[in-house]
Amino acid sequence: MTNVPGSLIQSVSANDTAKVTEILKSSPNMIDEVNANGETPLLIAVHNNQIDIAKLLIDAGADVNKQDAKKDSAYLYAGAEGRTEILSYMLSHSQPNQQITNRFGGNALIPAAEKGHLENVKLLLADGNVNINHQNNYGYTALIEAVALRDGSQVYQDIVSELLKHGADPDIKDNYGKSAKDYAHELGYGNMSKMLQESKR
Known about the structure:
CATH class of the largest domain: Mainly Alpha
Shape: elongated
Largest sheet: none
CATH architecture of the largest domain: Alpha Horseshoe
Helix content: 40-55%
Distance between the termini: 58 Å
Structural class: mainly alpha
Number of strands: 0
Order of helices and strands: HHHHHHHHHHHH
Strand content: under 5%
Number of helices: 12
Radius of gyration: 19 Å
CATH superfamily of the largest domain: Ankyrin repeat-containing domain
């Protein structure tokens, strides 16, 4: 059976697991086809948090690193947007390329920390392959973003704690000459300041 180009993307978009399974068997070469935005079937499944379909595609060898027009990959998007179950499956069943960055020059950990996705942060740190001190185009690390760009609430305190526990450097300075310590002090985040000051790297 021949499937026309776009069939797999259409089936993923329609959340038709049976059809996706059928196409992967009959036309495996379509697995990384892209739409007008450069999105693969797997990236679409991650966008929609279609866990079962994403797992099917990963098992069939879908490229978790292929980037769309916005420089999102399935791996980077799963990390950034709290797709925790899919991210967990990717980390154990595929090979995310840690050298690929998003449009801001960041890795998967930085937006996970900035957006408060604590479970994703824990997964990425436990996996151990992501660069915890990677700096994006602004010089921000995951630690700096969790402090400087957010509200100092409990989830961000927990993220800061996890990052420090895994060796995040609180003294790295961004492009504006400020470190996570500086931002915590300026913003009056007492608990974060204490954690950052007491951290032993």
